[in-house]
Amino acid sequence: MAAIVEGNTRGNPVSVVLRRAGERVAGLGRWLGGTLRIMSRNKVGFIGFLIVVAMTVIAYLGPVFWPFDPKADPTMIYKTPSAAHWLGTDSQGRDVLRQILNGGASLLSVGYLAAAITTVIGVAIGALAAYLGGTVDAVLSWLSDVFLTIPQFALLAVLAGIVHLNGTWPVALLIGAFGWPVLMRSIRAQVLSLREREYVEAARMLDMPTRYIVFHEIAPGMAGFIATSFVLNVTAAMYASVGLIFLGIVPIAGVNWGVMLNLAWAQGAIFFHDSIWYILSPMIAIVLFQLALLSMSRAVSEVFDPRLRE
Amino acid sequence: MAAVNEPLAAVSRDMRRPWWQAVMGNPVVRQVLRAFVTIVFVATCSFWLVHLMPGSPVEVYVNTQVRAGVPAEQARAQASALFSVNLNAPLWDQYLEYMRNLAHGDLGTSIVRQDTHVSDIILEFLPWTLFSVGLGLAISFSAGVLLGIYAAYKRETWIDHLLTTFLAALQAVPNYIIAILVLVYLGIRWQVIDIGAIRGTLSPGVHAGFSWHFLQDALYHATLPVLVYVITSIGGWMLAMRASTESTMNEDFVTAGLARGLRPARVAIGYVGRNAILPLFSQLMIAVGFAVGGSLIIEQIFTYQGIGLALAQSINQRDYPVIQGILLVITVSVVLVNLVADLLYVRLDPRLRGR
Question: How far is CA A253 from the centre of its chain?
């Protein structure tokens, strides 16, 4: 039967392409299944991973299913949780739960984008420094030292104050552009040590092309580290963006957890007895996401490094 | 034999080297030079940042003045005075002038607070941040190091798991959230502290001076910021120290010390601790930078008149000369703290001396 199917499809280019694509998908599925199985062995890490996935899905689907009604209702100011408003209401009588459900997307986008930018820059500069060595290495390492010296959040606040930022991309770009020094240092150190390993030397002696050595010999050894630092960079970027919003340096528009925090602060909600849910909700959302990312980062490194699995 | 000859070889190697190599080989000279170059670099960047960027603050200032009806010449003259540059000179001369003024401690004049020198503003606010951040980091460093040693010696027991998990989780909580929680619960809900009285850096009527009363008052007002700096940074020190201690514990000299019958506590502190603490110094720069950056928000939340509050305010008021000056000064402080840490590191680690 199999032979007949194969015989039939061999001559047909469309079905060959389809079959290859099918194999790809099946391979991806197997890889995903294997990855999830490895991650599920680390209980804490897996729970973190699940929370991150759940919060990300809710953050992006929230605005579709539970749209936020920005209309103020002066009769409902600072109400405690009730059946109609599970998390109470804010200073304008608007539902807090809806704000939480709608307010994650923009922060998460900034976090993921900025972390991706930081990772790309850090890996590129770190690998470049280690690979080229000499003056380039000295200059790049020195530059990373200098950027580490400047208090990062202060620099971000100043730059965000001078350049007028609007929207997700500019904020992500700004935060992402200054997070690279720590990653760059570790990538540089890793490349320097990895390229001296026996198996890399063996590949070099076998006259493998540089491309092969970089992507098949060196990169797999660093993938776990890069993935872990990506996850941790998401936490750092969220910290910075919420901080900038809280200080009112990034223009406040729409609903997000940082804006909620800023408004709660600016309107003195902390002094009202019944407003505690309004203040705590965005903080819990932010901390929960940060904690989930932190514990997820441990499981991530195990996926890439078999030696860490027990 | 080789070991005995080593100093002699080093001396003869020194004789053959040109003098500048000998000077540059000195770690102290190298560190000082590095710090100096970093400061010059940051100052240069801050100059070009403010003067070259499209819609640069100087340009914006001149344009606003012109739009307000001030003649262009006069607006440029005002801008020159404020930013302590001569706008009519070529950019390169402006840069040299700016650097010359910096070397004399002239950082320009505030736009918002008329006739106030930026250097005066900095002198007014910076000491409080150095005091609170310094105290916070000193406490969290000492406590974190001790906890780290303790956890490493109790590793895989419930107390180690508890400490490690709790402090690692604490690190994931942004410092401003801790600050708000401290204020909401300690200050407003439970009324443990009087937030009206603890605001600011000093109580009314208390003046800076060498008196017990002043010190007491300064410490009282710094309590909350210091508490937040300690809570947010202690986890990092503890976890780093725990890892470092664990890898040092198995060294031969530790076994040798114990074999000679030294008390385990003495080996833990004097032998393991002293060696395990060294890698932590390289993290000091990041910790200081993080705390100073965080002071922008922490000081805002507690209304503590430090440099972070001044910077956040000047950003919101678009007071560019002040922004530029403060960013430069806090960077210089971090560089200097780092320099001290580096020099201390060379002192603490004899292997680095004379290399």
Answer: 22
Instruction: For residue B83, give the nearest of A178, B122, B75, B245 by alpha carbon.
Output: B75
Tell if the CB–CB gap between A161 and B316 is shorter than 8 Å: yes
Confidence band for B230, pLDDT divided at 50, 70 and 90: very high
Output the CA torsion sign for A166, A167, A169, A174.
positive
Percent above pLDDT 90 for chain B: 15
Q: Which residue of B has its CA nearest to A246?
A: B297
Contact call for B294 and A153, based on CB within 8 A: yes
Cβ neighbours, 10 Å, residue B317? 15
For residue B8, pLDDT over 60 is answered with no
Both structure tokens of B166: 């709790």
Q: Residue B109: what are its φ and ψ, rounded to 5°?
A: -125, 145
- Average pLDDT (B113-129) is 86
Domain ranges for chain A, please list them: 9-308
Closest CB to B293 among A153, A249, A271: A153
User: For testing the chain A interface, which of B327, B328, B337 should be mutated: the one with the most A CBs within 10 Å?
Assistant: B327
Instruction: Give the distance from residue B8's alpha carbon to the nearest chain A alpha carbon, in angstroms.
Output: 31
CA-nearest residue to A245 within chain B is B297
Please check whether residue B316 touches A, CB under 8 A.
yes
The overall average pLDDT reported for chain A is 82
Which pLDDT score is estimated for A7? Answer: 47
Q: What is the DSSP code (8-state) at residue A134? A: H
DSSP string, A203-231: HHHTT--HHHIIIIIIHHHHHHHHHHHHH
pLDDT over 50 at A3, yes or no: no
Mean pLDDT of chain B: 82
Q: Mutate which of A44, A144, A145, A162 to disrupt the B interface (most B C-beta within 10 Å)?
A: A162
- Chain A residues within 8 angstroms (CB to CB) of chain B: 142, 145-146, 148-158, 161-163, 182, 235, 239, 242-243, 246-249, 261, 265, 270-271, 276, 279, 283, 286-287, 290-291, 293-294
pLDDT tens for A59-73 read 888 888 877 777 777
Domain range list for chain B: 118-352
What per-residue confidence (pLDDT) applies to B145?
A: 92
Structure tokens at A41: 């062995």
Residue in A162, A271, A291 closest to B172 by CB? A291
CB A172 within 8 A of CB A117: yes
Task: Categorize the per-residue pLDDT at A4 as very low, low, confident or very high, splitting at 50, 70 and 90.
Answer: very low
Neighbour count for residue B219 (Cβ, 10 Å) = 13
Place domain A9-308 in its CATH homologous superfamily: MetI-like (1.10.3720.10)
pLDDT for res B228: 92
Calculate the CA dihedral of residues A37, A42, A45, A51 and round it to 10 degrees. Answer: 50
Superfamily of B118-352 according to CATH: MetI-like (1.10.3720.10)
For B184, which of A152, A182, A270 is closest by C-beta distance?
A: A270
Provide the β-strand partners of residue B117: B109
pLDDT digits (tens, 9 = 90+) for A130-165: 878 888 888 898 888 888 888 888 888 888 887 777
**Contact assessment for residue B96 and residue B44, using Cβ atoms and an 8 Å cutoff:** no
Is the pLDDT score of A289 beyond 90?
yes
Q: What is the pLDDT of residue B3?
A: 46
ipTM: 0.81
At B150, which amino acid appears? Answer: Y
